[in-house]
Amino acid sequence: MTAGAETAAVSRALAVRTAELSGNLSGLLARIDAACRGTGRAAETVRLLPVTKFFPASDVAILHRLGRREFGESREQEAAAKVAALREEDLSGIRWHMIGRLQRNKARAVARWAQTVHSVDSERLATALDAGALAALEAGDRTEPVRVLLQVSLDDDPSRGGVASGDLAALAEQVAAAPGLCLSGLMAIPPLGAESDAAFARLATLHTRLLADHPDATELSAGMSGDLESAIEHGATVVRVGTALMGARPITSA
Ligand SMILES: *Cc1c(COP(=O)(O)O)cnc(C)c1O
After folding, report:
1. Residue 218 near ligand 1, beta carbon < 6 Å
2. How confident is the model over 13-27, as a mean pLDDT?
């Protein structure tokens, strides 16, 4: 191919992907809108968090041009590489969310790029993330504490991530007192095979209880491609959507 033909092929591919993401985005925003109307909520009380894991930085750049500013990632190394690539393009105002399981030894790295972490589920992880946040603040890698959502287990099965509901209050106290962290709300993933309505109803109850002690922890991260309507009905303020926006992931075990 000549250089000219190559450039034309690249811009054609970009136009095709832009049209695809734009169409999916409109459909998704309409779904969220309908879900809000169905349950009597104002549309602006629910935010869409595009989940861009396994998709390239170029997709994030397209979504940025389409007006999106928040993005969710689930693996530290992949996210850090994307953040670095996009920093060179100087896209303004991006807020990155870490939504995947986080190992303590990655907490320091995550604190350099994540505005919000959705998956804090243990005192040890909270301690490591607080230390990472303070180091990142000190180094000028961030200007504000890390917003923290506590991931709660809806079946109290510790093997799949999430703090057991009985340990939630103590973890919330710890995060609220940590200078590098800002307790912002709850996150959950319904247990495999569970009925999402029942799971999200339980999450809503736990959130109401948390709000009694921590009235600023208003964020409720719940709902994905397949169950966002149910999550919105039960009070979700942010829905984390991958597949319905980006298309099928090359690998689905994340
Ligand atoms: C991948 C992922 C999502 C997005 O799931 P989809 O079903 O593709 O919309 C949401 N939340 C978490 C924690 C994820 O890892």
Report:
1. no
2. 97
